[in-house]
């Protein structure tokens, strides 16, 4: 059966994308076939499609690091026709066709069943960014953080990971401080639950190796000087999670926050997270994420609009989450 897909090709080191018609036999091997409803545009998708990083390892390939839809065929134990499923990461958009298509064939072991309160659209409004935000919250809890310990900082707060982290943490009772380069979006961040908004420039330049204790915990998706300054300002026995590189991949700091303040820096990887961790994250999202707030973070586009979203993302103009309706 024919289906529509956004396909990435590479000519003379330049990546281009176009919406094409493909057939089931064009799909890669796998033990499940999914009728895809939605995918999303994450920062990693932007890096992949723009070629700023080598995410896509073989061409032509359907990009899209995540997808949600309904099982059409399955020989994988525990996954049946009609199940609503979500896939985040693994080889999608790297060596395996990803979510920007009406059909996907993949490994059943990559799938998580979508928890009851969520539609397939909700699952992609959350997407990899929201699931990563929950992995970060779980890591804070694992490190012993509770709302009584003090303020929690979220960097990159207007982004996908940041927006969902603000929403979840505030509903869990934390006093959330949101760091952003878009102070004009303060109303959006307060609506998600931020108690205080700070200018990201206060964190983005080289700073002292250790400074006044401000944060009981932090969710960082920015890296570089921002993460180093956050660590330097974290309270005794505080916990900081690192999932992103929006400012840079470098970490130009010292060990002082670790050896003087017993600060924990917890790494977050969503791509190869074990299945039991994914199931825990998705079930906690079902419990702790307010669907009204989720809807306020989300806009929906079609496949043809993805390259424009990528351009706007690098220009710092995309807020929250962008869902891709592959059937639009
Ligand atoms: N480890 C993992 O498995 C994993 C999973 C998901 C995402 N990530 C990473 O997490 C990061 C966020 O992903 P996302 O999908 O949420 O992206 P996004 O929606 O584009 O959000 C990134 C946010 O970072 C802030 N930012 C951008 N450039 C910056 C700069 N130069 N300095 C400081 N802040 C800057 C902006 O927030 P403001 O406008 O509010 O300043 C922007 O909205 C990315 O680096 C992504 O690769 C990693």
Quickly describe the structure.
With 328 residues, the protein is α/β, with parallel strands linked by helices.
Q: What labels would you give this structure?
A:
binds NADP nicotinamide-adenine-dinucleotide phosphate, globular, about 325 residues, 7-stranded mixed sheet, 2 domains, about 30% strand, alpha/beta, Rossmann fold, 15 strands, Quinone Oxidoreductase, Chain A, domain 1
Ordered list of secondary-structure elements with their pairings:
Layout: E1 2-11, E2 14-23, E3 32-41, H1 43-50, E4 66-74, E5 84-88, E6 103-106, E7 111-113, H2 120-142, E8 152-154, H3 160-171, E9 176-180, H4 186-192, E10 194-199, H5 201-204, E11 215-220, H6 224-232, E12 234-242, H7 256-261, E13 264-267, H8 275-288, H9 291-296, E14 298-302, H10 306-314, E15 321-325
Parallel strand pairs: 8-9, 8-11, 9-10, 11-12, 12-13, 14-15
Antiparallel strand pairs: 1-2, 3-4, 3-6, 3-15, 4-5, 5-7
Helix pairs in contact: 1-10, 2-3, 2-8
The protein binds NADP nicotinamide-adenine-dinucleotide phosphate.
NADP nicotinamide-adenine-dinucleotide phosphate binds next to helix 1, helix 2 and helix 3.
Note down, in words, how this protein is organized:
The protein has 328 residues and is α/β, with parallel strands linked by helices. The protein is built from ten helices and 15 strands. It has helices at residues 43-50, 120-142, 160-171, 186-192, 201-204, 224-232, 256-261, 275-288, 291-296, 306-314, and strands spanning 2-11, 14-23, 32-41, 66-74, 84-88, 103-106, 111-113, 152-154, 176-180, 194-199, 215-220, 234-242, 264-267, 298-302, 321-325. The strands form three sheets. Strands 3, 4, 5, 6, 7, 14 and 15 form a seven-stranded mixed beta sheet that branches. The chain has a six-stranded parallel beta sheet with strand order 10-9-8-11-12-13, sandwiched between helices. It has a two-stranded antiparallel ribbon with strand order 1-2. It is globular, with a radius of gyration of 20 Å. NADP nicotinamide-adenine-dinucleotide phosphate binds at residues 42-44, 128-129, 132, 156-162, 180-182, 200, 204, 221-222, 226, 243-247, 268-271, 313, 316, 318.
């Amino acid at each position: 059966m024919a289906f529509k897909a956004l396909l990435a090709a590479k000519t003379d080191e330049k990546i281009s994308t176009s919406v094409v018609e493909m057939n089931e036999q064009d799909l890669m091997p796998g033990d499940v076939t999914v009728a895809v409803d939605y995918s999303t545009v994450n920062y990693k998708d932007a890096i992949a499609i723009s070629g700023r990083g080598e995410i896509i390892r073989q061409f032509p390939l359907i990009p899209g690091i995540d997808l949600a839809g309904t099982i059409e065929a399955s020989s994988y134990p525990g996954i049946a026709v009609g199940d609503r499923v979500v896939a985040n990461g693994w080889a999608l958009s790297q060596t395996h066709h990803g979510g920007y298509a009406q059909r996907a064939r993949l490994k059943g072991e990559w799938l998580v069943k979508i928890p009851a309160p969520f539609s397939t659209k909700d699952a992609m409004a959350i997407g990899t960014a929201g699931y990563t935000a929950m992995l970060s919250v779980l890591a804070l809890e694992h490190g012993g953080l509770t709302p009584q310990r003090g303020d929690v900082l979220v960097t990159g707060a207007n982004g996908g990971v940041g927006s969902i982290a603000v929403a979840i943490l505030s509903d869990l009772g934390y006093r959330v401080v949101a760091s952003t380069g878009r102070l004009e979006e303060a109303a959006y961040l307060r609506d998600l639950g931020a108690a205080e908004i700070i200018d990201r420039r206060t964190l983005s330049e080289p700073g002292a190796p250790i400074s006044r204790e401000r944060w009981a915990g932090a969710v960082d998706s920015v890296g570089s000087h921002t993460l180093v300054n956050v660590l330097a300002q974290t309270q005794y026995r505080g916990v900081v999670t690192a999932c992103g590189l929006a400012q840079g991949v470098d970490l130009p700091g010292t060990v002082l926050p670790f050896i003087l303040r017993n600060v924990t820096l917890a790494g977050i990887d969503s791509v190869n997270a074990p299945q039991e961790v994914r199931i825990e994250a998705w079930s906690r999202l079902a419990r702790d994420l307010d669907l009204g707030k989720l809807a306020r973070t989300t806009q929906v586009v079609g496949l043809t609009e993805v390259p424009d979203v990528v351009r706007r993302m690098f220009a710092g103009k995309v807020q929250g989450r962008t869902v891709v309706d592959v059937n639009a």
